[in-house]
Specification:
Elements lengths: L3 H15 L18 H23 L4 H24 L6 H22 L1
């Protein structure tokens, strides 16, 4: 990457994808895309689980230690989603989606057990 324009463009893409914990799909020209369906589906699941953990805390069903553990796991899943999207031009493959969903299913069951 000796070309400064390419370096700057890749840095901007990384910042856009990694900012705010929300994955933003990019078109080939680097223009933000409203989102790829696979990314949107996984992102909704991560957001939903974060909301479930927050409701568990407010209801007194989940203690601070459990919540910190769940939040750390969800942050790792968010980071994994962002990295997968960054290496595929703002999209994730079906295999990556399947892998993320499998891990999110496990986390969802754990949150359910903590709240019941």
């Amino acid at each position: 990457m000796n070309n400064p324009k390419i370096l700057l463009a890749s840095l901007a893409l990384t910042v856009l994808i990694g900012s705010g914990g929300t994955a933003i799909a990019q078109t080939a020209a680097g223009v933000p895309d409203p989102g790829h369906p696979r990314i949107n589906e996984v992102q909704r699941r991560i957001d939903n689980q974060e909301n479930r953990v927050d409701r568990g805390i407010s209801d007194g069903q989940i203690n601070a230690k459990q919540a910190a553990h769940d939040d750390a796991k969800l942050a790792r899943e968010q980071n994994s989603l962002n990295q997968d999207a960054a290496k595929n031009g703002g999209h994730i493959t079906k295999a990556e989606q399947r892998n993320l969903n499998r891990r999110l299913n496990k986390g969802s069951r754990q949150i359910y057990r903590q709240r019941h």
